[in-house]
Amino acid sequence: MSDKQPVIAQKSPFAVEVEAGKSYWWCSCGKSATQPFCDGSHKGSNFAPVEHKAEKSGTVYFCGCKHSASGVTCDGSHQKL
């Protein structure tokens, strides 16, 4: 893995049911075995997990390609990869 480009975990979002007020740590490097969440696989790279604090309970579509311009949530960027 390059320290500049993340690994594409999948070219579609991860639909996850979240609970209001809970924090979720999104994997930004793409190497985590617990996608879309961090398992520490970024250690030794320039990547770090990104916190997503759920404002309300429901489905969140976390970015799977790691290229979303909107951060942890999918913005459709995977369609251009």
UniProtKB/TrEMBL annotation:
The keyword Iron applies. It holds the Pfam family zf-CDGSH. Keywords: 2Fe-2S, Iron, Iron-sulfur, Metal-binding. GO terms for molecular function: 2 iron, 2 sulfur cluster binding; metal ion binding. GO terms for cellular component: cytoplasm. Residues 11-48, 49-80 form the Iron-binding zinc finger CDGSH type domain. Signal peptide: none annotated. Gene3D superfamilies: CDGSH iron-sulfur domain, mitoNEET-type. This is Iron sulfur domain-containing, CDGSH-type. It comes from Sulfuricella denitrificans (strain DSM 22764 / NBRC 105220 / skB26).
